[in-house]
Every structure is written in structure tokens, then in C-alpha cells.
Write a structure and sequence with these properties.
Blueprint lengths: L2 E4 L8 E3 L2 E5 L4 E3 L6 E7 L4 E4 L8 E4 L2 E4 L12 E6 L6 H23 L2
Antiparallel strand pairs: 1-3, 2-9, 3-4, 4-8, 5-6, 5-9, 7-8
Length: 119
């Protein structure tokens, strides 16, 4: 089953967290409505696992703009799992800036997860 999820629209200069995505774990597909954006990384926050990160060679995937088919087995995951989908909005800034922005977003999300887990 495919489920359309809505996330918090956090953003930085080049990279942004997708505000909406579709996750089909049976097919290993993650899509965003903006079919022109490039998906930079995908983390399953519910299960605390990175399912796609081409920079770190995690879950290598066939990608077309706006859609990723991950190589990682996602069949045990649920379409309702909360994902952190980071996309490139197509800015002309350098790769280092994009990666720095992604790192900042991931640090913020990690802090929030750790804060919720310690309650």
C-alpha cells in the first residue's frame, strides 16, 4: 500500500526536507510531488535507518528526478513510517554548501529524535 505523508517543511539554502512524499515499501519506492527535484537522502525516522544516501553509498538506487527505488530491503517497513527526505532544490551553490546544509538538517533531526527518546 502506498501512503502520502506530510513532513515538516524545514529548509536551508540549497537543500530542503520534502514537505510531502509517497513511500511504497513493498516496491522500495519513494517519490516526491515535485518530479524535478533531486532526492539527496532518505532516512526512515521510525526505524532509525538510512535507506538512501548516494554520497555514502548507502542503499544505492535507480533514481529519476523525484523518485528513488532503493536497493535496501524495505518490505518490513510500513508506508506510514516517518521518513526524512532531503531534496536539492536546484540552486547553483556548491556541493560543499549543499552537504553542509544536509548535515545541519540531519543534526537537528537527530537532536529531536534523541530528545523524544529520552522522555
Amino acid at each position: 500500500m502506498t501512503n502520502i505523508n506530510r513532513g515538516a517543511p524545514l529548509s536551508t539554502a540549497n537543500a530542503a526536507v520534502a514537505a510531502e512524499y509517497t513511500f511504497n515499501p513493498a516496491a522500495g519506492l519513494v517519490s516526491i510531488p515535485d518530479g524535478t527535484a533531486t532526492i539527496l537522502s532518505i532516512t526512515n525516522l521510525t526505524r532509525n535507518v538510512v535507506i538512501y544516501n548516494p554520497i555514502a553509498s548507502v542503499g544505492g538506487a535507480l533514481e529519476v528526478p523525484g523518485t528513488v527505488r532503493v536497493d535496501r530491503d524495505t518490505t518490513a517497513m510500513l508506508s506510514t513510517d516517518r521518513l526524512l527526505v532531503i531534496v536539492d532544490r536546484g540552486s547553483s551553490n556548491s556541493t560543499d554548501t549543499i552537504l553542509g546544509n544536509i548535515l545541519e538538517e540531519l543534526q537537528q533531526q537527530t537532536y529531536l529524535i534523541q530528545s523524544m527518546a529520552s522522555r
